[in-house]
Design goal:
mainly alpha, two-stranded antiparallel sheet, two-stranded antiparallel ribbon, 18 helices, 8 strands, 60% helix, cell membrane, EC 7.1.1.8
């Protein structure tokens, strides 16, 4: 008689779950799913792990923070502020920092995690943009990523403003001025947000609810949707002899990827904890509580709103009276119109490129940035434009540090607002084309080996090695001749909307695709035969 098989509690539990939810079949189908092992694909994981840290630290801090504007007399452990009338929000933040065990460490971990969370989203979006990973069928995930970036900016600013210290209060005053600059409805928006006259007693509780409930809920939902779409559509990957548009290469989910991502999570936690331990950030006790009549010298916001600060500083004074209403263009344009237009253009770019090029095919292989010079140049131009505004946000600090008149720094950044992206675009495009020509030369002549050989005729030649097939595949620029549109030639060039659109689209198409004619196509390259070459 066969021995009865022993049953364990873990096995019984797994069997019970499988009988009800079919988990075994799901695991069998997905446990071998491949994930790319290139380092650039880890940027999104940094953002994910920072978000996990934000959720955990936020839960801890919520237990001790009091979101109130009511005044109280501070009598905590920080002696320099004894007897000072402060808000409940500021007093509870000081209590977390000095009286709650581990409170200051958790506060600083959270602040660093917020900064790195937005930075990781930024760099992750740039990786997707420069490699063309936003193309069909991943446009929806691109839109989700841009929305996550906008929500992360709002969440970071909300958390930064909650302590009600002098620096964050000044930022809120600027935010109220931005609301008031909106024509017609500005005063209503400010009244609704602050619950009356600034600062009011309702704003901090409202902001706290927004910060711990609404925006995190939206972030959690969008991150979940993003991960599910990535899981369904699979990752993009770099071109290879084994990786094409129809397959996916990389490490299996279990055990290699699971161990790798767990170790990466631990490493991210270690970095954030080290930063929080050794690098002080946002010491609110030094600036003191918010007072409308006080201001701190050389104060700077967190980096992700620095571009908004810079845009406000370099905008000239400009206002208009319309039907008895004053439109403050010096606030409305840089603080409302400009960021809204910037985020909208970023979100719509995949659809713009598809319309220009006319390529509606699905893509799963990443582009090498140099092989798409126009797109790469546009991305670098946007970075230069953003960097100019970000640096302008510290024009007073730069003026004092380098001894440059403040007016001069303002005009430098005003000129840079227009000149920096143009110069960056031209230089980047030419560098990409130069790099393509170098790749084409290596494909035709081979790679210089540094070995010189003397022929029987007495001539000295250098031996060239054949390009590695994997490297050659990555270096090859695409030559989609079928995507180059002909320039429309009308018998009667009337400026009708349809003809104008056709002219604009055809010229943009050639800007994106015709440059590839400058680099020899793979079919037209001379193959290097190492066995028959005179170099050998």
């Amino acid at each position: 008689m066969a021995a009865k098989k022993q049953r364990s509690p873990v096995g019984d539990a797994a069997r019970a779950v499988d009988e009800r939810f079919g988990t075994a079949g799901f695991l069998r189908r997905n446990i071998r799913k491949a994930f790319p092992d290139h380092w650039s694909f880890l940027l999104g994981e940094i953002a994910l792990y920072c978000f996990v840290v934000l959720l955990l630290t936020g839960t801890f801090l919520t237990l001790f923070f009091k979101p109130g504007e009511s005044e109280t007399v501070y009598d905590g452990s920080y002696a320099p502020l004894h007897g000072v009338r402060v808000s409940e929000a500021y007093a509870s933040t000081l209590r977390i920092s000095f009286d709650v065990r581990g409170g200051l460490l958790v506060r600083q971990i959270r602040h660093w995690a917020a900064i790195l969370f937005i930075a990781a989203i930024c760099v992750h979006l740039m990786r997707i943009f420069f490699t063309g990973a936003f193309r069909k069928p991943r446009e929806v995930n691109w839109l989700i990523g841009v929305t996550l970036f906008a929500l992360a900016l709002a969440e970071g600013f909300a958390g930064y403003s909650l302590p009600d210290d002098l620096l964050s209060g000044t930022g809120l005053r600027i935010a109220q001025g931005i609301m008031l600059s909106i024509p017609i409805i500005g005063t209503y928006v400010s009244f609704f947000v602050f619950g009356g006259v600034f600062p009011g007693e309702d704003f901090i509780p409202r902001l706290f609810t927004l910060h711990i409930l609404l925006i995190p809920g939206l972030l959690l939902a969008l991150i979940g949707a993003h991960l599910m779409i990535v899981w369904h559509q699979k990752h993009t990957h770099w071109p290879s002899t084994k990786r094409t548009e129809t397959n996916v290469g990389g490490n299996p989910t279990y055990p290699k990827f699971a161990l790798q991502t767990t170790a990466f999570l631990m490493f991210a936690l270690a970095v954030l904890t080290s930063l929080a331990t050794f690098a002080q950030i946002n010491p609110i006790w030094l600036s003191g509580p918010y007072q409308p009549a006080a201001v701190s010298t050389g104060s700077q916001p967190d980096w992700y709103v620095g571009f908004l600060e810079g845009a406000l500083r370099i905008m000239p004074r400009l206002s208009t009276e319309v039907a008895g209403h004053t439109i403050s263009w010096n606030v409305l344009l840089p603080a409302v119109v400009l960021p809204a237009a910037f985020l909208t253009l970023i979100a719509l770019y995949p659809f713009f490129e598809r319309w220009v090029i006319g390529d509606s095919r699905p893509h799963h292989v990443c582009d090498r940035p140099r092989n798409a010079p126009t797109r790469t140049a546009l991305g670098v131009a946007a970075i230069a434009w953003y960097g100019n505004l970000w640096a302008a946000g510290g024009n007073d600090v730069l003026s004092a540090t380098f001894g440059i008149p403040l007016e001069a720094t303002t005009w430098i950044f005003r000129v840079g607002f227009f000149a920096a992206p143009i110069v960056a675009f031209v230089l980047t495009r030419r560098l990409c084309l130069s790099a393509q020509r170098r790749d084409a030369t290596e494909a035709e002549e081979g790679i210089e080996s540094g070995i010189v050989k003397r022929l029987p005729s007495g001539e000295f030649v250098e031996i060239h090695d054949r390009t590695d097939p994997e490297q050659a595949l990555v270096r090859d620029a695409e030559h989609p001749a079928e995507l180059v549109e002909r320039l429309p030639r009308h018998v009667i060039p009337l400026p009708t909307p349809r003809r104008l659109t056709a002219q604009v689209r055809s010229r943009l198409n050639r800007t994106y695709t015709k440059y590839r004619a400058e680099v020899p196509a793979p079919d037209g390259r001379v193959e290097v035969d190492t066995t028959a070459s005179p170099d050998r």
